[in-house]
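Researcher: Final request for today, and then I'll write up notes for the group meeting. The sequence and the SMILES for thiamine diphosphate follow.
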Amino acid sequence: MSQMNMVQSINQALAQEMERDQNVLVLGEDVGVDGGVFRVTEGLLQKFGEERVIDTPLSESGIVGTSIGMAVYGLKPVVEIQFSGFIYSAFEQLISHASRIRNRSRGRFTCPLVVRTPCSWVSRGLEHHEESTEALFIHTPGLKVVMPSNPYDAKGLLISSIRDPDPVIFFEPLRLYRAFKQEVPDEIYTIPIGEANVVKEGTDITLISYGAMMSSVLEADEILKGNNINSEVINLRTLSPLDKDTILKSVKKTGKCVVVHEAPLTCGLGAEISAIINEKALLNLEAPVIRITGFDTVVPLAKLENNYIPDVRRIVTETKNLMKF
Amino acid sequence: MSQMNMVQSINQALAQEMERDQNVLVLGEDVGVDGGVFRVTEGLLQKFGEERVIDTPLSESGIVGTSIGMAVYGLKPVVEIQFSGFIYSAFEQLISHASRIRNRSRGRFTCPLVVRTPCSWVSRGLEHHEESTEALFIHTPGLKVVMPSNPYDAKGLLISSIRDPDPVIFFEPLRLYRAFKQEVPDEIYTIPIGEANVVKEGTDITLISYGAMMSSVLEADEILKGNNINSEVINLRTLSPLDKDTILKSVKKTGKCVVVHEAPLTCGLGAEISAIINEKALLNLEAPVIRITGFDTVVPLAKLENNYIPDVRRIVTETKNLMKF
Amino acid sequence: MPKLSDEEIKELYRLMVQTRVFDEKAWKLQRQGRIGTYAPIKGQEASDIGTSFVLSKNDWIFPTYRNMGAYITRGMPLEKLLQYWSGDERGQKIPENLNIFTLAIPVGTQPLHAVGLAWAAKKQKKDVVVLTYMGEAATSTGDFHEAMNFAGVFNLPVIFVVENNQYAISVPRSKQTKSETIAQKAIAYGFNGIQVDGNDIFAVIKATKDAIEKSKQNNGPSLVECVTYRLGHHTTADDYNIYRTEEEVQLWSQKDPIERLRRFMENKKLWTKEFGDKTFKEAEENMEKAIVAMESLSKPKPDEFFDYVFANQTNSIKMQREYLLKYLDEKEKEIRFP
Amino acid sequence: MPKLSDEEIKELYRLMVQTRVFDEKAWKLQRQGRIGTYAPIKGQEASDIGTSFVLSKNDWIFPTYRNMGAYITRGMPLEKLLQYWSGDERGQKIPENLNIFTLAIPVGTQPLHAVGLAWAAKKQKKDVVVLTYMGEAATSTGDFHEAMNFAGVFNLPVIFVVENNQYAISVPRSKQTKSETIAQKAIAYGFNGIQVDGNDIFAVIKATKDAIEKSKQNNGPSLVECVTYRLGHHTTADDYNIYRTEEEVQLWSQKDPIERLRRFMENKKLWTKEFGDKTFKEAEENMEKAIVAMESLSKPKPDEFFDYVFANQTNSIKMQREYLLKYLDEKEKEIRFP
Ligand SMILES: Cc1ncc(C[n+]2csc(CCOP(=O)(O)OP(=O)(O)O)c2C)c(N)n1
Ligand SMILES: Cc1ncc(C[n+]2csc(CCOP(=O)(O)OP(=O)(O)O)c2C)c(N)n1
Ligand SMILES: [Mg+2]
Ligand SMILES: [Mg+2]
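Model: Predicted protein-thiamine diphosphate complex:
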């Protein structure tokens, strides 16, 4: 056990998997000599050499596309896309190839690829440095989508992602990188992909979130507790495939649900969760499922950034309102 | 008035807008000499010349990216992407630029661009020739998304899209191109973007759909009528911005709702509609909002294609089941 | 003239004839509604077959929708090819013993996979060269550029074979790029490009062999531009009369690569009418057998397309699959979409 | 040596000093928390300013995050630049009278817009040349390739200015591409590329003028590679000591383009200590004024970021905006997310 922030726990996960499996390699812009612009891959070049820790040209499509070829040939590329706002030029490679090669070749070829990429709003970010477009990947068949919300989850989920036989988009909420430390086992451990975590049991209402918004949700939960609202809090961990059972079980118990994400509202993951609850637990619902999300706009720069992101007060206020429904 | 199929009505809309406005031009792969692989741009080169009807290199990002530059400079490019399954390499240009240039420049620059692209399942299509990824664009702030479901709508909506001051993704359901003819006015007319069309009023249940699935929904509606189910049928026409008012008004009246689309289930437009209804009309709901959609898989090739697409029987069966809820 | 035994030259001829027979027959099958859309290779056989012929078994090819000649040269069963074109994905499962990658439809996107595979092979110190096919229009895509650049930077054993058949559907080569040759594009990436007469199978073989040799000596990638011509329509859905003259097609017909090889062989006394007839007849028999085999394949099971979404079926996929099966069973009362 | 009047040479010097002063001050402002991340141009002023200086008012530039020299040369108010870096999008609204495109962050994506604008201008028979800036790493992107190809095919009046400053953050030029020069990449597209000493402002001007001349005569695009060096860190978030030696930086410091111009001017008796001091002092005064102006700007209204999603506000945007305003008003009982 050590106290680690998320940069450290991800770094450790990478180092341990690379140690364990010769086929794991890391590539991306500035991941080698520089150790990554957020220092997530620091020390890996020194430990594993240039053949396994590769600085690439500035070509997101090239990075993902060549990694697909490597994955097909038995390697385990762990790609870093420097910011998720720059993943779009690799979109075709992900959506038309990585996600489909198993299907297209009826299993002859497979694509066990991990794409790590920082996401989410961060204070004073430049444009494209604070995007939350996980829904684009969730909507795509054949991709798995994972987003940790603390150093412990990050390590366990990343190790599972690396071992997964299919392509995984691994979103790393940028503002959590150094936000806090946590006890993280020094040994290798995995957290299963596809299973949500009930962080706190409760009876009055279900709060569902993931990634960096989990911190705000947990903070809100503390305040709600003071208001005699006993929430059940779910951290999704995996966004695709979604753990519907855990969600439904909880909502059937509480009868109320709030979904929180910073991605834009329309067709975001909140919509899917609301639809599932509507389909499968309508009769248990005592109030509408509400979504507390980012707006359907570009994330504003520093001067207005605080107006974009759902904050603790918003979560508390909306939840309290909903309890009175 | 003439009897036209959708290819003809779109062709007429293009010709008339090009006639009316010197700044409108058409570009894409094979749109000139060939008249488009579906003949949608047939005759335009002869009428308007090479400067306004442009065969481009095979570069989707290049086509969209240069069109952005042209739109900024006052032209009105109407881009054809040969199949929506090939739009992904232009995704970054659409998502990071076309949709944001107005915002990024605080209105100094704007991007009145139309991207026409065939979509949807078609019998015996090759891979990537039958995709329904409208949700990716609906989720993106700053884009409008339109999908006609008959020749009449196609003409009016396309003319509106061309005149719209912002970028519009105009999806053309491939299997409707020559599926049927309809009376279409020879004059110019517009159909407003952002407004759904209540195709048929009814009281028992609301059926919502768009694009090629509308034909199946209308057929299903006929059968349901024979079963004494009086549906209200909504054709969305515009997918973003969504006409929530029309949806909510209808569901508040009927208390029941089925959304039909062929795009994959998870995080599709059906999820958004279900979520909106949940949020704003929960107390009016007498049954869950259900989604009848494509599966979360790649669209299979010919041998299994019929098993993928929601068909009339599925719509009828599910609706009848729902009526008994 | 590359070094080739008489038997090898005959084999080349046989492969070209087999490909031509496949092509013409596939066209007819589509017209009869027995398979779906098909993209003919007619006229490009020398480029396709010459390049694949000189590879070793452990080398790889990455074909496109048009490289039936390459597929056949590498030993792909004809009925699997037909199965694919008939709309059955199971035809895309390449037999385990063949180093052929499953074709992808989006133009220009596969060279990156080829580069990645070559990179992995190099890292694993395997003696492997990777050959990736494309048309001249593919060179306009961003992915082509990134693939070429990676191949150069990491000095990888890849050969980019561009079959410049003069058209991208209706768009002529001259509108595709202003560079005088496709071959010169390699200069942008710091390696060699060579332009050859793609209808001269010996020229094609020579250029490919040189490129292979170079790669094997760890001297990195090459681009081989084969100047050729698509004698047929783009696909069964196309009509080339809209965008080119019959005279142009006729002109190129006279350069038919099969006829060229035949004349060469005749001069060398390697071709007799008897040999020609026999070769043709065998090719036709192979094709007939393949058609029978393809048409007697059982239909895929109805839920087959759920099998390969993930290695391990997710709950959601499981439920959707069960729903479909129930639905197909027509017990309509029970179904409810998951 | 291009033809330049003494006054023009002095103006070049003034612009370079102004850019340097802006750069160093912006760095400090970031360190003081008064603006956000900043990407310095130090060392590249000759490439930036030389290329923009020779354009006419109706020509266009497409700058990146690093081209503060180009912005300043084209007359962009300093306080607008600072306003942008301070995290206020209103700073990105280019004044109507300036033909500067709003910068975009994704590397390599803007040349396509430049090509499109040049294309539109050509169609409208406007006398316009478009100059698009990028770093050497941008040439690795697919969009660069497609932009170059379109510019070639449609013979457009565009100049691709590549400021090859040897690094993409930490990645050195040698790992970016195997081509010996960036200039030679133009060969792939059938037009000219030229490599110049990017720290020699006269060489830069000469090459740009030639390219402009060529474009004006309808002879299409050019690529100008300016070989230069980023003397500073990549941005305020970077530390170059991780990936390069101080010796290397020192070596390039000796080629500082401002000092080079100064020496030239001194030889020509165009520079005196007095002139130098005055130029520097004026530049500092301009900067101080700009800082004051920027810091006394009113905050944008809280819902300002809803203003430019669409020309005509949609219902949904309207409701979200109203929700935000209500929420900020802290009447918490009433809010409910739309
Ligand atoms: C990315 C992409 N865009 C468009 C298409 C549609 N399309 C199929 S083949 C083709 C032309 C390809 O030309 P070329 O690369 O020269 O190959 P050829 O067909 O001539 O062999 C086009 C435009 C596609 N398959 N992929
Ligand atoms: C598409 C994209 N990928 C990654 C980044 C992150 N990034 C910002 S600048 C940079 C290096 C750019 O190098 P170069 O093009 O040489 O320009 P320079 O910064 O040296 O001026 C990178 C990787 C980005 N902005 N855009
Ligand atoms: Mg071709
Ligand atoms: Mg650079």
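Model: Chain C touches chain D at residues 140-146, 149, 152-153, 155, 175-180, 184-185, 187-191, 220 (CB under 8 Å). The radius of gyration of chain C is 21 Å.
Researcher: Thanks, that's everything.
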